[in-house]
Amino acid sequence: MGRFLVGAVAVVVGLFVVGAIATWLFHALFSSIFYLIVGALVVGGALWLYGRAKRTIGSGRNQRRIEAAAATWRQRNR
Questions:
Q1: b or e along 22-61 (b: 16 or more beta carbons within 10 Å of the residue's beta carbon)?
Q2: Tens of pLDDT along 1-51?
Q3: Band of the pLDDT at 58, cuts 50, 70, 90?
Q4: Four-point Cα dihedral 9, 12, 18, 24, nearest 10
Q5: 28 partner at 20 to 30 Å CA-CA among 39, 46, 55, 58?
Q6: How far is the CA of 4 from the CAs of 1, 7, 11, 18, in angstroms?
Q7: Cα angle vertex 33, ends 30, 37, to 5°?
Q8: Verdict on whether the full-model pTM lies above 0.70
């Protein structure tokens, strides 16, 4: 009876240790994946906003206004 009890306790402790290690490993893995996804979304959003701003500034009437202001500034500051 004593050997059975020691073996049963060893199995329970072993399962606990393996479960704790697996839980820690999965947590670390999924946390890093989550942070990678959030980082990719932030960088992608920033690039999207940059593209929209660049397109807005560099097109049509605004671009002509910027070029005219730059030309005026160059003429005044020769």
A1: eeeeeeeeeeeeeeeeeeeeeeeeeeeeeeeeeeeeeeee
A2: 788 889 999 999 999 999 999 999 999 998 999 999 999 999 999 999 998
A3: low
A4: -110
A5: 46
A6: 5, 5, 10, 21
A7: 140
A8: no
